[in-house]
Amino acid sequence: MKDGVKGEEYTGDSEGVPIGRAFPYFAYGSNMDKRRMRKRTGNFGKYFPAILKGYTLKFNKVAKPGNEEGYTNIVKDPSGVVEGVVYFIDMSSLKRLEKWEGYPEHYERIIVEIEKKESNEKLKVWTFIANQNKVGDNLKPKREYLQCLLNGKEFLSSEYYNKLLSIETLD
User: Which pTM does this prediction carry?
Assistant: First the structure.
């Protein structure tokens, strides 16, 4: 167990690459794109669709100061639901991912409880949430960024996917 998140022994990913002890990470934004995730972490083990209750997805993370581009973030909302994917990653992959996410300056790593979409089994996982000083109003994603979320279609309900499709982009 690391910070309350239970790891598990895992012998390899879908390509048989050994990774040892793996920890669950919930991706709700551009990391739902498996190619992007592999590029960022180098390796991940098993993965499955998941639901995070009590939060809403927002594009309110400031991409760069002074512009209107927003990245994904989750915001507490008692009636909210965020869909995504849980990847099992080892500690070295987590450290690489932290660099991509701008941890700890831009995002904070927190523990949340998700539900596996298929079984409703609950699991404590790591995820990232934007630091309050990096959040803004009236931000929109670029089309290319939103496409990374849409590339996670296999993990999403059709209703949630269609909701993402309707998001207005900057370009």
Answer: 0.90
